[in-house]
Write a structure and sequence with these properties.
about 140 residues; mainly alpha; two-stranded parallel ribbon; 6 helices; about 5% strand
């Protein structure tokens, strides 16, 4: 499956620990990135961190368990997906006001982006009714 990014860059793998959670931090802004999943002990530490951060019950996957590496990686990738989806929903439901996630998203888009052009037209609109109609498009 090919996903088109509204940006003209991506974040590559930059070593073991630098990009393991990049998607959680930037994917909701439409920025693509790669995850290094080579070190499964690091994956397990990140699982614990993000389970605790999202107030979900964390169940360790021990190296003594069968297929522990596959289970750790699968669970971590599913956890990343849930976090990204949650942040994306938060972004979509945020208000168009200074400092909001949706405003940050549009401000980070490349200048030549069609979405950014629509956003600029939105900002230039005088009528609140017009803005409400256009907010539904975003």
């Amino acid at each position: 499956m090919s996903v088109l990014s509204p940006h003209n860059f991506h974040i590559p793998v930059m070593g073991l620990s630098f990009t393991i959670d990049s998607p959680i931090k930037v994917a909701h802004y439409g920025i693509t990135s790669a995850i290094s999943i080579i070190e499964d002990n690091l994956v397990e530490m990140m699982r614990k961190h993000y389970y605790q951060q999202s107030n979900e019950p964390y169940v360790p996957i021990s190296t003594d368990e069968g297929n522990y590496r596959v289970r750790r990686l699968t669970d971590y990738l599913n956890l990343v997906n849930r976090n990204v989806q949650s942040k994306l929903e938060d972004l979509r439901s945020s208000a168009f006001e200074t400092g909001s996630e949706i405003v940050k998203y549009f401000e980070m888009l490349p200048e030549e982006s069609g979405l950014k052009e629509k956003y600029r037209r939105f900002l230039d609109m005088a009528g609140e009714a017009e803005k409400v109609d256009l907010e539904e498009v975003f």
